[in-house]
Amino acid sequence: MDSPKVTGCIVTFNNMRTIDKAVGSLLEKTKIPFKLYAVDNCSTDGTPQHISEKYPQVEVIYNSANTGFGAGHNKIIDLIDSEYHAIINPDIIIRDDVLAKMVEYMDSHPDIGMLSPCIRFPDGRYQVLGKRSPRIKYLIASRMRGDKPGKVLSEYAMLDKDPETAFDIENATGCFMLIRTSLFKEIGGFDERYFMYFEDCDLSREVTKRSRLVYYPEAVVCHEWGRESKKNNKLRIIQIKSMISYFNKWGWK
Prior knowledge:
alpha/beta
């Protein structure tokens, strides 16, 4: 059997609320040769069993413990033999063949190592997400954001750029990324010092050391962004630990 053009991976942990929308939309809308993996981090709500039963074309891998986001994605790095690999959150929805659009663009731009789509809320609103590498001032501005982004958050999200045109960025969100599989393997996947949070920022920096990282608005992904770390003290502590690991690695500036 020939290798698929694109592989994808979703790491799950008690995601029954959103998993059908994510997996269902990916399998329905993706027309290019595509293989999807789901790595489950020891869910207790039946998520992996549900995926196996409803979507037999998805290869489900069961972890015996919750190893975190990056380590979960790394679980399949030796299994994939595709040209491109998609890193996908369990709370995304696609409404057209996003992967085909992204592959076509990367095929025509061989200097691009990773592509980030336009991320929107399910109701169509644009998600204001960091596109520059994190800095302390950006993170404070993001944590204290109001209804409208201020000057610092606008700088972090590169809102001075035309959101309808492609442009180079420093940082891509881990909710949906398309990376060349060879580059993902060269980097060694995600840095597993991050249990959750900042692993996407770290991977983005590793990519930009080697190639271009580009925002591509022709591909649109819907993301049910919950910002759980603002509501959950345990997740807030994990986020702070990851932040410290990130700045210790890349510098406090």
